[in-house]
Amino acid sequence: MLATMRKLGSGFSFRIFAQKNQTLIVGFGGTGMIIANEWYGRRDVKDEMGQRVDAATDKITDKVISRIHTDFDSKFDNLQKQLDNLQGLVFNCAVKTMKAIDGDKTALREFVTRAEKVKRCVELGEDCQEGIKQPKSADG
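Now predict its structure.
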């Protein structure tokens, strides 16, 4: 609009043009306000949608990370239990072997018998706890 007014020359008076074409001026002004409002509104919606997307992404990320931590913790606990069992088995075997070296071979025989029962249970995929005597303490 300004370019059009400049083309008309320096003798152009906007006040006279506005008085003669009031409807046109109001139309331009209203259209300009609507366009400006739409531009602002789109920016506003874009910012709001960006914030919503960020919040949703954060929630999803938190849930995924929480699930990963839960799975990792349960698997780590399971591995820790298996490690504790294995260490107990190795320690028990070492104690029984030391007793066998000293001359008491019955403890080692009992240990080997129980170990073979556990091995069979594991190979068959059965519950190994039933029917197996709990190991005695390292002393006897």
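The radius of gyration is 43 Å.
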